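Re-running the complex after MR caught last week's input typo. The corrected sequence lines follow. Everything else is unchanged.
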Amino acid sequence: MIDSQVLERHGLKPDEYDRIVGFMGREPNLTELGIFSVMWSEHCSYKSSRVHLKTLPTDGPQVLQGPGENAGAVDIGDGLAAVFKIESHNHPSFIEPYQGAATGVGGIIRDIFTMGARPIALLNSLRFGSLDAPGTRRLLEGVVAGIAGYGNSIGIPTVGGEIAFEPAYAGNPLVNVFCLGIARASDIVKGVASGVGNAVYYVGAKTGRDGIHGATMASAEFDEKSAEKRPAVQVGDPFMEKLLLEACLEVMRTDALVGIQDMGAAGLTCSTTEMGSRGGAGVEIDVALVPQRETGMTPYEIMLSESQERMLLVAKPGREQEVERIFEKWDLHAVRIGQVTADGMLRVKERGKVVAEIPNRALTDEAPVYRRPMQEAEYLREVREMKGSYPFSDVVPAEKGYDHILLALLASPTIASKRWVYRQYDHMVRTNTINLPGMGAGVVRIKGTDRALAMSVDGNGRYCYLDPYRGAMLAVAEAARNVACSGARPLAATNCLNFGNPERPAIMWQFAKAVEGMGAACRALDVPITGGNVSLYNETDGNAVYPTPTIGVVGLLEHADRVVGRRFQESGDAIILLGEGHGELGGSEYLKVVHDQVRGMPPALDLKAERALQQLLVALAGERLMRSAHDCADGGLAVTLAECCFETVGIGAEVSIGAANVARDARIDGAAALFGESASRVVISVVTADVTRVLEQASAFGVPARLVGQTGGNRLRIAVGGEMAVDIAVTEAERAWSTAIEQYFAKRVA
Amino acid sequence: MRFGIVVFPGSNCDEDAYHAAREVFGQDAEYLWHKDADLKGADVVILPGGFAHGDYLRTGAMARFSPIMNPVRSFAERGGPVLGICNGFQILLESGLLPGAMLRNKGLKYRCEHVHVRVEHTDTPFTSGASAGQVLRIPIGHGEGNYFAPPEVLQKLEANRQVIFRYTDAQGRVDEAANPNGSVNAIAGICSEQRNVVGMMPHPERACETLLGGVDGCAIFDSVLRWVGSPLKV
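Corrected-run output:
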C-alpha cells in the first residue's frame, strides 16, 4: 500500500520511511504515515535547522519562557510578562494572499493568548518583488487586506512593521507576523497535557478538509503547479477567534486548566503530540467526537486538517463543567474528545477502534535531525568584488545632482512612506499606541503602570545576500536600535528565518552563517532569542529568496511619557549625529536605485559601539534630553535627515557634514557621505541648552557625537565638506516620499 | 454617573470606552453583556466600536436583535443619552434608532487615521460642552463609514439640525479631500429627532489622553458629564 509514490506525496524520503518502520516495529498504516509526514516535515520538526538554532542565546535573567513553548516571555516588572513571537506565513500568502496573510495573523495571535496573555499589538515584516513587476501589486494588496481584515476585526492594533521590495521575492513573497501580549507573570499557561484520566477538550471552529498538508506544503519548493495547492490554504474567521480569545482568557482566569494549545500547523496531530510530549504523558482521542464541518471525513483527514480557530485543552479533574459553562457563554462548545494517558502514546480511535498508535517520542524528540552539507555560495565572489583600492571605483557617478538622487531614494518603495499600507490597519484600537506606525518602533503603553513596550521588526535581505553573517548581525542591531531610539531598553528578541531550499549546500551555508551572526549580535546586545520560526524552501523553480532573517526586538520604557519619535519637534533645535559614518556604500539602496547594482560588502558592525550607542539613547530619553531620534538605515544620513523633517508641519534643517573620502572621485565621496549606510548611527534633535549635556553623556558612554546642524526653515540643506550638496524644499521631498506607493496603484487605475 | 457599555460578541472598543469613562473621567462604568435584559442603572449608554457578530452579513445587522437592544431602545425613548461609536453607530442605524445607512468607504479600503470634524450643533448630550463650529481632531478606523441617506431623509436631517459632526479640514472647511469615506454631505455623526441618541464614526475614546496624541475626544465625554449633571471627580 505504501509505495514510493505515496512517500513522495507525503514529502518523506525512503530512509525516513525506514526509520518510521523501525520505531513502529511494523509498517505504518496511511493515517500513521500522514501523522509522521507532518510531524517530520521541515516546518514542524526543524530537522535541517535544529543543529544551528541550538547555538543561539536564549537565556537571561529577564527571560521567563524561552523557546519550546507556544511563545516566549520576558519579565517587564510590576509582576507582568510580555509574551511575544514572530511567525511566517509565506507559502500560503503566495498562493492565496488575502487568506494566507489573514490566517498568519490568526495563528500568531492564538500562540500568544494560548499562553494566557492578552494580545495587545501586532507587527509585520513583508517582502515582495519590485512594485512595478506584474503581480506584485495584487499580492501586496491582498496581503495587506488580509492582515487588516483579521487584525482590525479581532481588535488588536497593528502598530508597526516594515516592507521591502526586491526582485528576489517576486516568486516568493515573505509574510512574517509578530504578536505581543501581556500576562501576569505568575499566570502563564503552558501547552502541557498531564494527569492520567484528565479530560481533553476540543473547542472552536469545526474541522474541515481545508489546509490538509499545509505544513508539508510549507516544506517544499514551488513550481508552476503550485497554484493547484490552493486547497492547502486555510480560511480565517476572525470573529470565531475573537470569541475563542475572550473565552480562553476567561477560562484561564479560573485556574481550571492543566494546559492548552492552539491547533496551528499540522492541526490536531501536532497539538495532541506536543501537549503529551511536554507533559511526559500520552493523549488518546476519538476522531468521531471531533466536530466536523463536512461529512465522511476520514481519520487521516481529521488528524491532518489545518482548519483555523481551534484549540485543544486539558481540564483539571472536577472542573470540567466550569470550563464548559464559560465556553457556552461565548456560544462556543467545548467537546470532550479524549483523555490523558500514562503510556506516552498518541492513540487515535474512531468510534472506539484504534486507527493510529504512535509513541510521542518518535514524532517529536526522535524526529530526524540533519546536519546538511554547506558550501559558500559561488555568486559571492562576483558580488563582493572590488576594483582598485577603493570600493566601487568602477561605479560611474551619477551626473544628476544630489537633490535628484535624494528624491529618487525617497520615492523608492522600500524607503517611501508606507502610509498607504498602515492606514488600512487599525493601529489605535485598545488605546495604547503612543508611537504610531511610521514613527520608528511601535510603542504601546501598559495600562495600570507607568511603563510602555517598544517593538520593532527588521531584516535586510540584500545585506544577507552579500554577507549572511554580517547581514543578520545588522538586522539584530537595527531592530534593537529602533527600540532604543524610542527610549526603551531592548529586552529580548524573536526570530523568523526565511531561506531557500536547505538541501542545497549554498543555502544551508547562508542559513548557518546568518544564525551565527544573529547569535553573536544577540549575545553582545543582550537580547536573547525567546522563540520564533523557520521558513525554508522559499524557492520557485530553483530561484531562492534573498536569505532573510527577520528579527523582532521588544524593549521596555520605564516612563511611557518619555517616549521619543522620529520627527523634529521645533525649529531652532540642535541636530546631533551619534556614531560615525565610514562612507560604506556596499549593499546600499543608493547602489541599487541609482546604479542598479547589488554588490559590495554590507556595512561593518562594531557590536561594542552599537551597544554603547543603544545604552546612550536609553539614558538620554530617560533624562528627557532627546526631542527626536531616528536611526540611519536604508538611504543613509540624507534620507534619515529628510525623514526627520517629514510630517512635522514642514520643519527643515541646515546640516553640515564631512566628505567620506572613500574614492578618487569627489562625487562618490559625496554620495558615500550622504547615502552610505554605515551602521550604529542615529540623528537626534535636542534643545540648544542641552547640547553640552548631551555631548558629555555621549562621551561618558564612549559614543562619537557631533553637532552637525540645526532645525528650522522650510528647506533641507546639507553641506558636504563645506559645499552645499542638498538644498531642497521639505514639501517637495515629502511629496516624493509620501505619494510614491500610492502612485503605483493610481497608475494601474488610470 | 454611570456609563453602561454594551458588549456584543465581536465588540472590540468596549474596553477603550470603559477605560476612558473610568480612568480618564473618573466615572462609574459597567459592561452590559448583549444577552442582558437591563442596563444596570446606567445614566448613559455607549454602543462601542468593533465588529459585532463578525459583521459578516451587514455591519450591525445582527446586533440589533440582541436582547440588550430592548432596554436600550426604551432608555432612548425616555430621553436617555445613547452614543454609538463607529460599529455602535452602524448598529443604531440598523436598529432604526437613527436614520440612514452605511456603505463601504469610497476607495473600498479600511481607513485608520486622525481626521477633523466640525461640531455643527451643541444641543445634544454629547456636544453640549463644545462650541458650534469647533473643529475636533479625532481618529477614525472603519471600512464602512460612508454615510448614506435618500434625499428626502437627508433634507429632513439637515432641516432638523440633526447633522452633528461633519468631516472638514483643520480650518473647519468642508472639502472633498477631507472627507475620508465619501459620506454624503460630509456627515460624520448625526442625532435622533429627540437629539438624545447620537451616532458618530470617529472614536472620541481614542483621543482623551495627551499620551495618545490628542485630547479633542474629551469634548464628547465632558459634554455628557455636564448634561447628566454629575461633576467630574478629581
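None of the earlier attempt is carried over here. The radius of gyration of chain B is 16 Å. The longest helix of chain B spans residues 14-24.
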